[in-house]
Specification:
The chain is α/β, with parallel strands linked by helices. The chain is built from 16 helices and 22 strands. The strands form 4 sheets. The chain has a 15-stranded parallel beta sheet that branches. A 3-stranded mixed beta sheet has the order 1-2-4. Strand 14, helix 11 and strand 15 form a beta-alpha-beta unit. Helix 1 packs across helix 3. This is F-box domain-containing protein.
Length: about 550
């Protein structure tokens, strides 16, 4: 064997190339041709056996897989009558030490494991968990670095048998957590000191008697030293502690749902942060309700030096957009590092619509020259002109996504011809959501020197549109790769309706863009004189129903 195969790094690269990338999806792991090839390599070549086995088993992320394939004859399938309808592995007999030989051999290779739910078509019953945990010594997987646990599938109390000191990432999902689970988390904190990523994604509904649990969970979380935290449990003390934590990089605060008919106090309602807060943070996501004035107060205390992502999903009215966006800009001391901004104004049923927002309100954001994604949800109308679109294109040349939906129809829209600025200056723009006035369009207006081939989706919302032919011709000339045009109708009072039927004219425009592209591709083939031309549009033409 060539001496290069004695280098562990080279063998690892070869074995990893043999695997089919599966991510977290185990449903095709056993039947994958590449997986079987790697297993054959491990059986036939002694020199690469250890490396091949390690690569083979590091993709196994469900305990049912290793239990079934290393302990044959120990299990029977039991079909549980529930919503999941997934057959469960249940012990067929008493499990003895001899049954665990292969399991113990392969267990140290496992790095990442899902408990309680995955894509694998079989699960492990609670009796199966009991059989393994009562027979094997803890930690059952000694080198486990990542645990994903679904409390809807199996009680969190079993995690104590699987968590090892090597654990660095813990994701918990499910319906809810109890005070018993709180003690389990404290136990894991003491045993697994290297955990730097904690994700609690429970869809939590707080009853009157459970709201006091929030502070207890928040106090427990405050004892962890984390790089990444996602949690529905937040308190004033925890928020202030995180604000000055030099190691925290990602913070995601999810919403806490109160029991119907009750109200719930949230710490963001009275939040006062220390100065220079979140200076080391790179990503901040707030899914909980926060009043606009409290958000302004919070941003005034922040000094983002590394932040590249800011997402706030429930800003309670009334929102003054220029003030909010100015506060975002003022809070960032290194605007060239900022990449993504998502702000959503919460709906206020029964309340009058807020006044329209003018395009000048976006002025503070023009300082973020490296912005790649901008998504602003307005409850009122957004009035934009061609100059505003031109300024956006000039300020954000790296833009890949631009979505500006508004719940109320604007009185002022940029003309369709204004999109030429985005086509000329934003070559990476792939997703656009912007209302325009396409009622008077001519192909004569289409620029002859601008073709933007990245745009694939355009959400026109309630944009007025004239005859489909000229509009389709214009878009085909400027955005030849445009695949999707999505529109929405309007309800009687003029407000946009999210589930309204699409505008049939815009549907025709989408079809015509593809048709014109196919015709142009065919013409290019006729004049190519041997050059290679992509003819995908030509084949699409036959399937278009005009």
């Amino acid at each position: 064997m060539h001496r290069c195969f004695h280098i562990p790094e080279v063998l690892t690269l070869i074995c990893e190339a043999c695997r089919e990338p599966t991510g977290d999806n185990d449903s095709t792991w056993v039947t994958s041709e590449n997986t079987q090839s790697l297993a054959a390599l491990a059986r036939t070549c002694k020199e690469v056996y250890a490396t091949a086995i390690r690569c083979l088993w590091q993709d196994v992320t469900d305990i049912a897989i290793i239990a079934e394939y290393t302990m044959p004859g120990c299990w029977m399938l039991d079909l549980v009558d529930d919503e999941s309808n997934i057959p469960l592995l249940t012990p067929a007999r008493h499990i003895v030490e001899a049954d665990l030989t292969r399991f113990k051999f392969y267990a140290p290779f496992i790095r990442k494991m899902t408990f309680g739910g995955s894509d694998w078509p079989k699960g492990l019953s609670e009796d199966g968990y009991l059989a393994l945990t009562m027979t094997l010594n803890a930690p059952i997987f000694p080198n486990l670095t990542h645990i994903s646990w679904d409390t809807a599938g199996i009680s969190l109390s079993y995690i104590q048998y699987f968590a090892s000191p090597s654990l660095v990432s813990l994701h918990i999902a499910g319906d809810s957590l109890s005070f018993g689970d709180l003690h389990v988390l404290r136990c894991i904190r003491q045993r697994c000191r290297n955990v730097s990523e904690l994700d609690i994604g429970c869809s939590y509904i707080l009853t009157r008697s459970e709201q006091h649990m929030v502070a207890s969970f928040a106090d427990t979380i405050s004892t962890w030293s984390l790089h990444s935290l996602k949690t529905p449990f937040m308190s004033l003390n925890l928020m202030r502690q995180l604000a000055v934590d030099p190691t925290l990089r990602t913070l995601h605060i999810t919403n806490q749902t109160p029991w119907p008919g009750t109200s719930m106090y949230h710490p963001l309602e009275s939040l006062v942060l220390p100065a220079q807060a979140f200076s080391a943070l790179t990503s901040l996501v707030i899914g909980a309700d926060i009043r606009a004035d409290r958000l302004l107060t919070m941003l005034e205390s922040c000094s983002f030096g590394c932040l590249h992502t800011l997402e706030i999903y429930q800003i309670l009215p009334r929102v003054t957009w220029r003030s909010i966006l100015a506060a975002v800009r003022g809070a960032h001391s290194a605007p060239s590092t900022f990449r993504r901004l998502r702000l959503k104004e919460a709906a206020s049923p029964g309340q009058p619509r807020p006044p329209p927002t003018q395009g000048a309100a976006l002025e503070p954001l023009y300082g973020f020259s490296a912005l790649e994604e901008l998504h602003l949800d307005f409850e009122g109308a957004l009035h934009l002109g061609e100059d505003d679109v031109s300024r956006m294109a000039q300020s954000w040349p790296q833009l890949r996504l631009l979505l500006l939906p508004a719940r109320a129809p604007p009185q002022e829209r940029p003309p369709l011809h204004a999109l030429r600025h985005l086509a000329a200056r934003c070559p990476r723009l792939r997703t656009l959501g912007l209302e325009v006035d396409a009622s008077d369009v001519s192909l004569v207006h289409a620029p002859t020197d601008v073709r933007q081939t990245a745009l694939a989706s355009w959400y026109v919302y309630a944009s007025p549109v004239g005859p489909a032919g000229p509009v389709g011709a214009y878009l085909s000339a400027v955005f030849p790769e445009l695949e999707k045009i999505a529109s929405a109708g309007q309800v009687a009072d003029g407000d946009l309706e999210e589930e309204a039927p699409e505008n049939p004219t815009w549907r025709k425009v989408q079809v015509l863009v593809k048709a014109f592209g196919a015709i142009r591709a065919h013409e290019s083939l006729c004049t190519a004189k041997g050059r290679v031309i992509r003819a995908g549009h030509i084949m699409e033409l036959d399937g278009i129903d005009f």
